[in-house]
Design a protein that fits this description.
This protein is α/β, with parallel strands linked by helices. It is found in: Golgi apparatus membrane.
Length: about 525
């Protein structure tokens, strides 16, 4: 093949080698190209070729271990530069040793395993150690530290489980003293509310809040923070629902600590006509749930003794044993339409929250025909707390779940919810809730493990109106990454998690936001040694 370039650089002709007079023309633009430009272009490409040659030669001379010249530029820039690939400097024997499994009892009782990185380095420097010995020592040290870390984490989870599941002696003392006061002091047995205020309990022009709790101190903080931050406390009605054993202490506290002009109602479950007539599905489900949990979980000792599961899985199973997950106070919210047949809208509050703003604007939120106004938990700056989707709560390896729900659908939170009871009564939400609770029991708790939120996510599916995250900040009971200033600026803060603010395991940086609503000079608080920190 021959190449002919015309003097004007306007045509390039290619002749085949066998003399066939077929040619092709490549037209260059009408712009004239000077010989000087052609000369500099050829000079540049010549220099570039020489540079690549020198680079490759110097790199070869440097070898694989040195990296002191320009020849290592390619290695620094990446393994694929200029078409060359570089092998790892780590000997293959190290990979082989580190990938070999080590028996769980292989290190038991051995004193020659390095206990720290300092011991490891000292032992390596002491003698001439080849790559294989180095890998063996490293594997043994890391495995030993992993085993110790796992044991320490499980012990921490167990201690937290015991601490969060037990009733602190201070709270037990408070309940006993208030019960005694109820029996000896007529002022502690007042009708709540007084007779002239009873009509307000069914008046929909008031702001109705519902709190279900068997914890007097926690209920006192919720009530006080609600009323203190309300712009129209005279329009606030707080319905407190408790159980039979806590009714007298709860009545005594709010009789002796009135929150006028707000209206406080204290009522035990057995005072509700609906609750005492016939079978209550939630109570039947709780009884079955308790039997199943005791049969299949084996208690905290059996859970902790499992050597194959990860600590986070063990922590989740321990949390599933918490009494609160089998408490009627936790399940009763699903029966709000029956408990309050005359009310159109209520805001349901958990007892581990603190209210820091006026909540009356919640009644102005357009629910768009939905039943449950809640904050979503899949979006937000805090990726640890606000990263919850349905797959975080439901077991999508079970066909009953996977065929009915989307694992990536956003979850929402209990704790501070607006419930449109009028819209609720037109749905089958309560029946759906009990159906799925029953299915979970039949499947040996394989649809989800704990809590009332998973069946709530299912029952309210398609009935949730998303509200602004300002109204509900979560996670203050299981992490302290939230700053004090951020928590202080939220409308409602929620100490969901094990580290409740009334426990000694509470996070000290966040507890003051809860404690400031307690009068520590009160005679009941003081006599039970309940302190600010």
């Amino acid at each position: 093949m021959q190449l002919y370039i015309s003097p004007s650089l306007r045509h390039i002709t290619v002749f085949p080698a066998k003399g066939f007079k077929e040619f092709m023309k490549v037209k260059v633009g009408s712009r004239r190209v000077s010989y000087r430009m052609l000369f500099y272009s050829l000079l540049f490409f010549t220099f570039l070729l020489r540079f690549v040659f020198v680079l490759t030669t110097v790199d070869t001379i440097d070898g694989e271990t040195k990296c002191s010249t320009i020849g290592c530029l390619g290695k620094r820039l990446g393994p694929g530069i200029l078409g060359r690939r570089f092998e790892s400097n780590v000997p293959e024997v190290i990979y082989q040793v580190l990938e070999e499994p080590i028996g769980k009892d292989e290190l038991k009782g051995r004193s020659d395993v390095p206990q720290s990185l300092e011991d490891f380095m000292a032992e390596i420097r002491k003698g001439k150690t080849d790559a294989k010995t180095f890998a063996f020592k490293l594997r043994e040290m890391v495995t030993l530290l992993e085993q110790r870390t796992r044991t320490a984490k499980i012990q921490e989870y167990l201690y937290r489980h015991v601490a969060s599941s037990s009733i602190p002696k201070q709270l037990h003392c408070l309940a006993l003293k208030l019960a005694n006061e109820h029996s000896t002091n007529a002022a502690a047995r007042l009708q709540l509310p007084s007779a002239e205020l009873v009509p307000a309990l069914v008046d929909n022009s008031y702001f109705h809040f519902v709190l279900a709790s068997d914890n007097v101190l926690a209920a006192a903080v919720v009530a006080k923070s609600l009323v203190r931050n309300s712009l129209r406390p005279q329009k606030v009605v707080l319905h407190i629902i408790t159980d039979r054993k806590t009714y007298y202490p709860m009545q005594a506290w709010f009789s002796l600590h009135p929150l006028s002009p707000a209206i406080i109602e204290v009522k035990a479950l057995h005072h509700f006509d609906w609750f005492t007539k016939g079978k209550v599905p939630v109570l039947e489900a709780m009884e079955k749930d308790q039997r199943v949990r005791s049969q299949f979980r084996g208690g905290s000792s059996a859970i902790v003794a499992n050597n194959t599961e990860k600590p986070v899985v063990i922590a989740a199973k321990l949390q599933a044993l918490s009494p609160k997950y089998n408490s009627v106070m936790n399940h009763i919210r699903i029966h709000l339409p029956e408990l309050f047949p005359s009310l159109n809208k209520v805001v349901f509050l958990d007892d581990d929250i603190v209210i820091q703003t006026d909540l009356s604007p919640l009644w102005d939120i357009d629910m768009n025909g939905k039943v449950n106004g809640a904050v979503e938990t899949c979006t937000g700056e805090d990726k640890f707390v606000m990263s919850k989707r349905l797959k975080s709560y439901l077991n999508f390896s079970h066909p009953l779940i996977s065929k009915n729900f989307n694992p990536n659908e956003c979850a929402w939170a209990y704790g501070m919810n607006i419930f449109d009871l009028e819209a609720w009564r037109k749905t089958n939400i309560s029946q759906t809730y009990h159906y799925w609770v029953e299915q979970n029991l039949k499947s040996d708790l394989s649809l989800w493990q704990l809590g009332t939120l998973p069946p709530g996510l299912i029952a309210f599916h398609g009935h949730v109106q998303v509200i602004d995250p300002f109204w509900h900040m979560l996670g203050l009971g299981y992490q302290d990454n939230t700053s004090f200033s951020d928590a202080e600026s939220a409308g409602v803060i929620h100490f969901n998690g094990r580290a409740k603010p009334w426990l000694e395991i509470a996070f000290p940086t966040l507890r003051p936001l809860w404690a400031k609503y307690i009068n520590f000079s009160d005679k009941f608080i003081k006599s039970c040694h309940i302190r600010a920190s």
